[in-house]
Amino acid sequence: MKETVNIVPVGWEVDRVIEAAKMRKADRVILLRRDTGTESARFFQKIAKGLEASRIEWEDEVVGLDNEFQDTLRAVAHCVRREHHKKHRVEVNISAGGKTAAVAASLAAMYHQGRCTLFQAIPESYTASKLEQGAEAAAKLYENHGLTIGVKDVPDLTHYHLTALPLEQEIVLAACTTKQQTLDDLLNLLRKHGSTSFRLKLGKDRDAAVKVLERWVLQDLEEKKYVERDQHLGSKGNRKSFLVTDVGLDAALITGLLNKERTPQFDLA
Q: Given 49, 54, 139, 182, which residue has the most CB atoms within 10 angstroms?
C-alpha cells in the first residue's frame, strides 16, 4: 500500500513533528535523532509517544554529532531514495532538528527533486515568549513542547534546482567510497546496475566499453574532482584504479545510495 512518509531530523521540538505529521496526513514518520546520551533524547521519547497516541507509525535512525551535516545529508538522501523506490509519497520536514540539520535536509531533498516534497512547520508560538508567565511555567512548556508550541501551517517549500549526477556517475562514485575500483570492477558494476540505455552503449567489446566508461562517466567525475586515478597502477591498463576524494565523498552521500553503514546499496539505483 502506498504510504505518505515524513522524514524528520529531530532535536528540541515536539509539536513540529507530531502536529505536522497529522496535518500532512502522514502514515509513517522516520525520525533521524541524536544519540540517547544527548539532551534532545527526552524530546525524542515524547515524539515517539505522541506519534503512537496519534496512531502514526514511526521508525528511527541515529545521526552522529561528530559530523552532523554529513550524517544528516546521507540519512535524509538515503531515506528519500529508499522510500521513493518503494513507491511511497515522501515528504521532508526541515523544522525540528536545528539549523545544521535543516540545511543538510534541504540540500538532500532538493537534490532528489521528483522523489520527494520539502516542507516546514510554522509554530504558533515560542516557549521563550512565555517567560512573562514565570520561569517555572515557561520551563514546563519547554519540557512538554520543546522550543516551540503548536503548529499553524505546514507549507511546501520551493525545490531550488540542484543538478543531480547521471545514474552511472552516482553508482561509480558510491562504489569508490568503499575501496579502489579498477576499470573492470566498474564495468561489471554498470553492466549490472546501470540504466538499460547505458548497458547497451557499453556493448560486449571491453576496449570499446572502457572508452564509453571514460568518456561518459569517469571524465566528468575527475573534472569535478570527485574521483582520482591511482597513478602507480595507471600504467597497466586494466589495473588502473579509482578512488573517491574528500569532495567526492560529500557528493556520494547526497546520492542516497549509501546506507547508515555507508555501504553502497545499488538495488536503489
A: 182
